[in-house]
User: Which sequence fits this backbone?
């Protein structure tokens, strides 16, 4: 790093000082703020400094900043060369610390345009056959994982990991340092730029140009060439508490536009206003899918109404007379051959007073319903099944300072969560002969503090798994990668599969997780499948 230095208390760096009679050096004070909520979305700042053309990596620092009061953060870059000017390309990345991946070299992502239209087939296609990668184009040769960072002794000190691009705000700043000139550069890591990766052109490719270095400033999925920053001669630091963190989220964290319905006694049709906000959609480690790893991304979720309980048998009884047809509702047994001897596993009924339908089932969640049937029941009341983003937001992010999938103390209590009740397939830790397989909709199965804060939505982990509106495809598929930050979804009504979220009464304790996302066919009718409505 020829003649270039970085200094800041927050970076814990010290490179010495010039003598009092030394000529003045060029210096840029860089002040960084973000409008994303801290620490929910951003708790870490990664600072990397490169040569002006981006081909040589000079410095890398990772700063943990979970306290909103620590923002804005600042540091200085300066040159020890007091005779000629110097330049540097500064890369600033704000992200949540657990969302990192192995460093494999600089790779440029090529994502489909926002709002692209897909067919039922192309929506689920990915850049790889197994749909597990975003397929960045790495610098040549890819196996070298370029560029590399070396210390002053020539030792390779390249960081082992880097932020995952779709959850990161990534901005490049070009500073020109002129001897004797000092100034300030103010940078906002804008929430609108989350998931838009900055571009450093591969120097090994033909004729790289300065305009090839591009960054997002303030518009979603929009890159502009990086121009030299203008130095503000006012070097005053921002006043404490002047951060605008959280302003990106504020327009979403409002009251619901609709008023919750007045609940009817005995129907368990209560609604809760889920106040909106911003979250990292998906799992940090991939456990959110048994079909393919999760690909986390930022999602901004407007407020919405959600059923407090899973859709109950009592509600189905009331809606039954309004249905034009009942082909999508099963009175048992389910279509799982192993369950044919257990029609009692189906809670609902579509004929008058069958012998196995008893009044105490009114408070249980309706199951043995196709995805299309679940949608029709929700639409009768002016709603629909939730998008996957709405479902995950309500379960893991609403009303809490940071996202966490609902978890339980081990060993699980059979009174806390409806799980382990499948005597047929062996997951029978909680099976009791002649006992209900399902927890009543009115009973709390694992409510945590976040549920209390945002209205007490119940039963989102055990009991029955719940339908979502989105197609049953990988989060690395076309439709997800072309979805915007606000209300992202992959709704494809003609898709062959759809997403089922969380786990159900028939699974063992080591499989109980609200993070699961599983594809099911539209005509799937299972005793483990249920739903709740949103509007």
Assistant:
């Amino acid at each position: 790093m020829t003649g270039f230095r970085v200094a800041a208390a927050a970076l814990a760096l010290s490179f010495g000082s010039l003598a009092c009679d030394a000529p003045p050096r060029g210096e840029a004070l860089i002040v960084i703020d973000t409008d994303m909520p801290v620490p929910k979305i951003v708790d870490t700042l990664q600072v990397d400094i490169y040569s002006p053309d981006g081909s040589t990596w000079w410095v890398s620092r990772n700063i943990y900043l979970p306290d909103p009061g620590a923002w804005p953060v600042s540091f200085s870059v300066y040159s020890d060369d007091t005779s000629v000017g110097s330049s540097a390309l500064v890369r600033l990345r704000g992200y949540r610390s657990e969302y990192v991946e192995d460093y494999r070299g600089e790779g440029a992502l090529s994502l489909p345009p926002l709002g692209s239209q897909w067919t039922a087939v192309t929506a689920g296609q990915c850049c790889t056959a197994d749909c597990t990668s975003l397929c960045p184009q790495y610098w040549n040769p890819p196996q070298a994982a370029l560029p590399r960072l070396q210390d002053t002794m020539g030792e390779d000190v390249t960081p082992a990991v880097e932020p995952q691009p779709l959850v990161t705000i990534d901005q490049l700043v070009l500073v020109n340092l002129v001897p004797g000139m000092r100034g300030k550069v103010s940078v906002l890591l804008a929430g609108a730029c989350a998931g838009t990766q900055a571009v450093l052109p591969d120097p090994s490719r033909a004729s790289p140009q300065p305009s090839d270095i591009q960054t997002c400033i303030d518009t979603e999925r929009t890159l502009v060439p990086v121009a030299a920053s203008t130095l503000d001669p006012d070097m005053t630091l921002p006043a404490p508490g002047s951060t605008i963190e959280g302003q990106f989220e504020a327009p979403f964290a409002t009251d619901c536009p609709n008023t919750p319905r007045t609940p009817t006694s005995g129907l368990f049709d209560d609604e809760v206003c889920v106040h909106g906000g911003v979250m990292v959609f998906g799992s940090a480690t991939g456990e959110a899918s048994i079909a393919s790893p999760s690909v986390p991304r930022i999602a901004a979720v407007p407020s919405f109404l959600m059923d407090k309980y899973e859709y109950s048998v009592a509600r189905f009884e009331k809606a039954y007379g309004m249905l034009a047809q009942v082909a999508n509702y099963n009175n048992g047994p389910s279509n799982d051959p192993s369950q044919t001897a257990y029609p009692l596993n189906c809670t609902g009924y579509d004929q008058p007073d069958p012998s196995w339908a008893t009044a105490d089932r009114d408070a249980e969640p309706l199951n043995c319903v196709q995805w299309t049937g679940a949608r029709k029941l929700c639409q009768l009341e002016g709603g629909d099944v939730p998008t996957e983003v709405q479902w995950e937001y309500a379960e893991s992010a609403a009303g809490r300072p940071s996202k966490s999938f609902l978890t339980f103390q081990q060993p699980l209590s059979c009174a806390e969560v409806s799980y382990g009740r499948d005597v047929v397939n062996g997951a029978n830790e909680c099976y009791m002969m002649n006992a209900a397989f399902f927890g009543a909709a009115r009973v709390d199965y694992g409510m945590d503090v976040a549920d209390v804060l945002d209205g007490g939505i119940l039963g989102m982990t055990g009991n029955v798994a719940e339908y979502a509106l989105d197609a049953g495809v990988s989060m690395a598929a076309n439709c997800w990668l072309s979805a915007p930050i606000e209300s992202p979804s992959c709704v494809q009504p003609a898709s062959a599969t759809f997403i089922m979220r969380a786990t159900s009464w028939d699974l063992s304790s080591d499989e109980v997780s609200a993070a699961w996302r599983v594809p099911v066919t539209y005509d799937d009718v299972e005793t483990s499948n249920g739903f709740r409505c949103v509007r």
Q: What stands out?
A: The two ends are 56 Å apart (CA to CA).
